[in-house]
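Side project, low priority. Logging it here so it doesn't get lost.
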Amino acid sequence: MKRVRPWRLGERCREPREALGVLGEVAEALAVHLRAALRAEITVRALEPRIIPPDALAMLLDASTVFGWSGQRTDLATVIDVRSAQACAAAALGGAEPPRGGSLSPLEREVVARVISAALPAFRPLCGPIRGAATANPAPGDLFLEFTIGPMPAASLAVAVPPPPMSLPGPPLEVESLAEVPMTLSVEFARASIAFAELASLSVGDVVIFDTRFGDPAVLRVGGEAAFIGHPGVQAGRAAFAVGETLSRKVE
């Protein structure tokens, strides 16, 4: 799998140093939760993040057991290879059998699912609080974050997380930053329908009669969109508009 540099692990990680800090935070929390679940002294170390390429996905799925989870910010999939799963199951059951390979027994799968479920709070920095199981699966382009587990028979646990969306450079746009943006206003005080032939025959001096009666409310348009109803007038020698009713929701 291809290594990722610089790493971005969600909204809070904009620099490689921040991403390393988040991975270290996850590793420390993972160690705490696995110690409680396995009732053993456990150390966890984060490996360098990688990206899942399309040609490696089938091999990864064939050799691993995947559990999907729904996070508050994004879904993620926990990925554990068969030997690591067997090592975790044996530790949780108090045994010392070395991993045999092959496939997981139903009991081993159930035990591993419980161990991983107990460790889910450690992944909160990556996806927010876990809301429950989901159908999430690793996909090409996902970030593959692997953690080694020891000193029991060498094992590892990984999570596949969709990459964060691309964002434009610069600070986020807020309503306050739009306060000085000029807006174009226009007033529509009369409307009428006319046949194309009549329109084509118009010449200087002709009079067009509109459907709107004199004194009827006019429409104030903002950027071409009808926003207010009111009455046109004059103030300080300039055209003015008295707002009487709102037509569209204003920016708050």
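Brief comment: Residues 175-246 form a domain with the Surface presentation of antigens (SPOA) fold (CATH 2.30.330.10).
Revisit when time allows.
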